[in-house]
Amino acid sequence: MPPLSSPTNRLQRLFQRRPCWMLAPLAQTLGYALISVRRFLNHLGYYRSYTHNGKWYTLRRSPQFNREGIWHHQAIGFSKHGSLTATIGHLVDQSPAGLSARQLAQKLGHPCHPVLTHLHQDQRLERVSVAGEFRYLSTEASRNRRQREQATAALPTSPSTALSAQAAVLVLVEYVKHPELSFEQLAAHLQQPRKLSVTPERIRLFFQEQELKKTPKTPNSGS
């Protein structure tokens, strides 16, 4: 009678068939209790997913990580750095200018706003507002200083005049409806019904930045 295959060999063959497994189906297929399957996985070495609350497993030899240590099998994400929290921390620490939630979501293929909020509240990440969005930074002093310098290097030295997306839309809508209005009159129109406080100078600079052609009337100009 041929010798029975060891459970670790059988486990490896299951991962050859499917690179990712949840623990309960794996234990059922293998015919062992969960505690035993965990012991077999520890022996072989494994990664847990940073997506799906860490419910997916893959053997350590399976992932082909990109340069940032991320690997996806279908919609399941794995990281050589471990959990989602640990991976975010690593990516932020290694970034020259910090990373926004949007940039992190692109790298991870997974939303991370709630995790970032908790990391900031727990003082494990710092953040600074750059161009209308939070940029998350390392808490290590020298790295934090370099990231802040890089993050703000491309910003204008004068006070920000950029309009929010909502304000820009409202300005454009009002201008299309009333192209004859001056920048001062546009600002007044927006403030009355919508309580949008925006200065004529910011509207003028918005038109300039967007290369919109307008020669506005001013209150003191003659006909």
Describe the model.
The protein has helices spanning 7-17, 23-30, 34-44, 84-94, 101-108, 113-121, 141-153, 165-177, 183-194, 200-209; strands spanning 21-22, 46-48, 56-59, 70-73, 76-79, 99-100, 126-130, 133-137. The model is unreliable at 216-223 (pLDDT under 50). It is 48% helix and 13% strand. It folds into three domains: 7-79, Arc Repressor Mutant, subunit A, CATH 1.10.10; 84-153, Winged helix-like DNA-binding domain superfamily/Winged helix DNA-binding domain (Arc Repressor Mutant, subunit A, Orthogonal Bundle); 158-223. Helix 9 (183-194) packs across helix 10 (200-209). A hairpin with a 7-residue loop joins strand 2 (46-48) and strand 3. Strands 1-3-2 form a three-stranded antiparallel β-sheet. Strands 6-8-7 form a three-stranded antiparallel β-sheet, with helices on both faces. The protein has a two-stranded antiparallel sheet with strand order 4-5. By secondary structure, it is an alpha+beta fold. The longest helix has 13 residues, at 141-153.
